[in-house]
Design goal:
- By secondary structure, the protein is an alpha+beta fold.
- It has a domain of 120 residues: Gcn5-related N-acetyltransferase (GNAT) (Aminopeptidase, 3-Layer(aba) Sandwich), CATH 3.40.630.
- It has an 8-stranded mixed β-sheet, sandwiched between helices.
- Strand 4 and strand 5 form a beta hairpin.
- The longest helix is centred in the middle third of the chain and has 15 residues.
- The protein is globular.
- The relative contact order is 0.14.
Length: 172
């Protein structure tokens, strides 16, 4: 499974991608507003391949893995139609539209091939660039969880975003 774009390739992550992956994610600015800690723990990479309900797509530029879009499919009986998406990109490629295109592609794949009905993610409300990427991909903010994350001795608000297969939500 491989998707080719003008300036990058999106494909399944492989064990042989480990060195590139660790080199590019292990950046304080990349990890700052993600759930991960800096420096990146290399053992986490190996765990990406142990979950049967997780798919990791590598973002490759010039034969180097410079980012990832991951999709976890919930296995709960009443929520097995939901996926959780996460993503990151090496700082030198921020602002190039790469992650926006990669997320669209993974969402299309999840809806068409896996038959998911909803894709969700949580994002720090301070991460304006990430929120913009989600909005460009028609994700809708369903709510904000106040002081929901604690990282680097600081509380953060978390916005909960979703995208629906039919792109309709009930107004509450």
């Amino acid at each position: 499974m491989e998707f080719k774009f003008e300036n990058f390739v999106l494909r399944k992550l492989k064990l042989t991608d480990k060195n590139d992956y660790i080199k590019n994610i292990n950046d304080a600015d990349v990890l700052k507003l993600m759930g991960g800690e800096y420096p990146y723990n290399p053992e986490k990479f190996d765990k990406l391949f142990t979950s049967k309900n997780f798919i990791s797509f590598a973002i490759e530029i010039n034969n180097e893995v410079v980012g990832e879009v991951g999709l976890t499919i919930l296995e709960r009986k009443i929520q097995n139609h939901i996926g959780i998406i996460g993503y990151w990109l090496a700082k030198r490629y921020w602002g190039d539209g790469i992650i926006t295109k990669a997320i669209k592609c993974v969402c299309d794949y999840a809806f068409k091939e896996i038959k998911l009905k909803k894709i969700t993610t949580e994002v720090f409300t301070e991460n304006i660039a990430s929120i913009r990427v989600l909005e460009k991909n028609n994700f809708i903010c369903e709510g904000v969880l106040k002081k929901h994350a604690f990282k680097n001795n600081k509380f953060y608000d978390i916005a909960y975003y979703s995208k629906f297969y039919e792109q309709q939500i009930l107004k509450c």
